[in-house]
Design goal:
6-stranded antiparallel beta barrel; 27 strands; alpha+beta; Pdz3 Domain; hydrolase activity; Thrombin, subunit H; 6-stranded antiparallel barrel; transmembrane helix; 3 domains; SpoIVB; PDZ; 407 residues
């Protein structure tokens, strides 16, 4: 009898510690804010179970009020934490999967190199000596706004060797410094020793188009400078038609890529935002396809899903994947899920996820749940995805900005 009592006592202790551990896990991982569709109650799928991905382990008590704090409970009985819930209308979007060309003009010019000048007094780096750093964005020289390398070069030449004032941004701060150009021993011209980038171009994949706002979202991650790796601040960009002509297959340690080309220089849309969640703007014509509901993050679960991507030409195909992990942490805006390619055709043609597929829509249960963002370099069959909710939130901020400008 005592052995039986000890057994049940031990089992009870294990269960208590398991529940406490699970409670602590969810307290740390569950966000402080959720959206729900009007009239619906918040339910959260298991984040730790892959064998039963749709098992609901956490629900919020009923009678929730939009925009107010509500109690979140484990198994409906064990309190976990308070979270904010706001009601939103169900959004329907047209999934993309089509390639598009991106042409971006930077807001100011980004410093991508600081070059030493061969002067009569030896090697000098005026810009570096004045405090300029790679990644800084120059917005004005001698009080004149600049948006190209040619403009900066011309203003330095016009100085005739006199000091110039340079206004730049570093992060969210704007500063002005004085740079003293030096005369190059090679061509006898004044130089500041600055290499800058004023534009960028590439090919990505459209994630969605919103028929109600004519706005699109793509890539699922920012367009970054190839030298600095920093997000390019843009003043304006164009969206143009593109086609996929081939694939460099991905292998372990070497990411593959889609080989594409612009098919026209005539814009089919405008790119207005370049953010951590992707690029966003306006498409001039509605693409083909039927709208599907856009899923909120708590509707996504581990298990089978598909992606839409174009491996040849301009027409996307649907490929099978598995969502293996979910990350609801609000500090991680782009790496919200780990996905694995299971489709034999996609594995045979591309080796899995390759560069250029970023933005490929992820579909599950008839809804748009996210987009492909990154490939694992050491395993091209796997990669990261972003929640569609995060991308739509950015698109809505763009819509609100446009409404303010129009009013």
């Amino acid at each position: 009898m005592r052995k039986i009592i000890r057994f049940f006592a031990g089992m009870t202790a294990i269960m208590v510690f398991s529940v406490l551990g699970l409670t602590g896990y969810y307290q740390a991982t569950i966000p402080d804010h959720y959206y729900v569709h009007q009239g619906e109650q918040l339910t959260i799928n298991s984040l730790v179970s892959s064998s039963q991905p749709q098992q609901i382990i956490s629900t919020v008590s009923s009678n929730q009020s939009s925009g107010k704090s509500v109690q979140l409970d484990l198994f409906g009985i064990i309190p976990i934490k308070q979270t904010m819930v706001s009601e939103v209308n169900q959004t329907e979007v047209i999934p993309g999967g089509t390639p598009f060309g991106i042409k971006l003009l930077t807001q100011g010019v980004m410093v991508v190199g600081l070059n030493a000048i061969d002067s009569e007094d030896g090697l000098k780096n005026p810009a570096k000596d004045a405090g300029l750093k790679i990644g800084d964005v120059i917005t004005a020289v001698n009080g004149q706004p600049v948006s190209s390398n040619k403009e900066i070069s011309a203003l330095v030449q016009q100085s005739n060797g006199a000091a110039i004032t340079v206004t730049y941004t570093r992060g969210s701060e704007s500063q002005t410094i004085s740079i003293q150009p030096v005369i190059s021993r090679v061509d006898k011209h004044p130089k500041a020793g600055i290499w800058v980038r004023d534009s960028s171009a590439g090919i990505g994949t459209v994630t969605f188009y919103d028929p109600n706002t004519q706005l699109f979202g793509g890539l699922g991650h920012p367009v970054c400078d190839v030298d600095t790796g920093m997000t390019l601040p843009i003043s304006y960009g164009e969206m143009v038609s593109a086609t996929i002509n081939g694939i460099n297959k991905g292998t372990i340690g070497t990411p593959g890529e889609l080989i594409g080309a612009f098919t026209t220089n005539s814009p089919i849309g405008s790119v207005l935002l370049n953010t951590d969640c992707g690029v966003f703007g306006e498409m001039y014509e509605q693409p083909q396809g039927e709208p599907v509901p856009l899923a909120l993050k708590q509707e996504v679960h581990t298990g089978k899903a598909t992606i839409l991507s174009t491996l040849d030409g301009t027409t996307p195909q649907e490929y099978e994947i598995e969502i293996e992990e979910l990350n609801l942490n609000e500090k991680s805006v782009t790496r919200n899920m780990v996905i694995r390619v299971t489709d034999k055709t996609l594995l045979e043609k591309a080796g899995g996820i390759v560069q250029g597929m970023s933005g490929s829509p992820i579909l599950q249960d008839g809804k748009l749940v996210g987009a492909v963002t990154h490939v694992f370099v050491n395993d091209p069959t796997k990669g990261y995805g972003i929640f569609a909710e995060n991308m739509m939130s950015t698109a809505l901020s763009l819509e609100q900005d446009q409404e303010k400008k129009a009013s």
